Amino acid sequence: MIKNNEELNSYLTNQNLNEDLILVLKTISDSCFEISETIRSSGINNLIGKTGEINVQGEKVEKLDEYANNLLIRNLSHSGKVFLMGSEEIESAIIPNPNNIDSEYVVVFDPLDGSSNIDVSVTIGTIFAIYKKINNDQNDLENLLQKGKNAIVAGYTVYGSSTVMCLSSSVDTSLFSFDKNGRALRTHSNIKHGNSNIYSVNESNWNNFTEKDKSWIKKLKSGTEGEYTARYVGSLVSDFHRNLIKGGVFAYPYDSITGEGRLRLIYECNPLSFIAKNTNGDASDGERKILEIKPSNLHQRVGFYVGSKKEMEIRKKS
Ligand code: AHG
Ligand code: MN
Ligand code: MN
Questions:
Q1: Is 115 in the pocket of ligand 1 (CB under 6 A)?
Q2: How far is the CA of 221 from the centre of ligand 3 (A)?
Q3: For the residues 252-279, what does the mean pLDDT come to?
Q4: Ligand approaching nearest to the C-alpha of 236
Q5: ∠ Cα 211 217 219 (to 5°)
């Protein structure tokens, strides 16, 4: 545990969060700092490249995916306060070792988002959300298959030009930076969505967009709704972070030909949708509020629209 992390301690205490939950959040903060440090020097520590494994998503696992995943599982298990975990990298529910059967909290995470950007030193991140367990059965997936609206706290870290951690509850959403000792120092409080005109869409998928989405994006481009510019990092967490601070919308629609979504409801969409809601933004799968969707399986993928309400409203009318 990072020593003298007083600013984070007092922030979490002032949020009236339960002591156990505070320990879980401090564990995540410490883990993210460690991941950040490791990423910074990954090129000289043989941590760039693939492991040779294929994960449950059918994607080639990067060494840093595996590293971040193992670190979070180990540290959260050792916190003693986590009942169950779910990770984008792991097919089934993760029961902590030691077992912590009496603990309350369920943590879900995308240990490293934006894996395709690792080997080109472009911003990547970690995304997470914390829930309370529903029952005392660690083998009951219902503890993980909770609607996003049940989240108590969600957050992310972006490992970008600087490392920034966002923590969000219904009371407050704040940003933190780490000092060289790993202490999280608050830089922004009570964050609300900005109002710049930005859209973040991978337009190479254009031919598989619905007519509604094509008409929406054409509207954003046309200038009738204000001058828009496009920004697409290809790491959801970075695109979300930029749009939160500056304003704008991120969209990764369902593929209208296959009906498939790209992004994972539990590990990516729910945490960011929870943050969007707390910061006066909005999130949907095109039809339904993301936070109202009952997950049907641990790795369900959905269409995802998240960001400022303004662009969501323009889409409704498109
Ligand atoms: P991950 O690295 O966790 O698998 O997630 C990658 C996701 C997301 O970060 C990003 O927005 C999206 O994949 C990019 O997909 P495209 O390359 O199809 O644009
Ligand atoms: Mn991801
Ligand atoms: Mn990932």
A1: yes
A2: 30
A3: 98
A4: 1
A5: 100
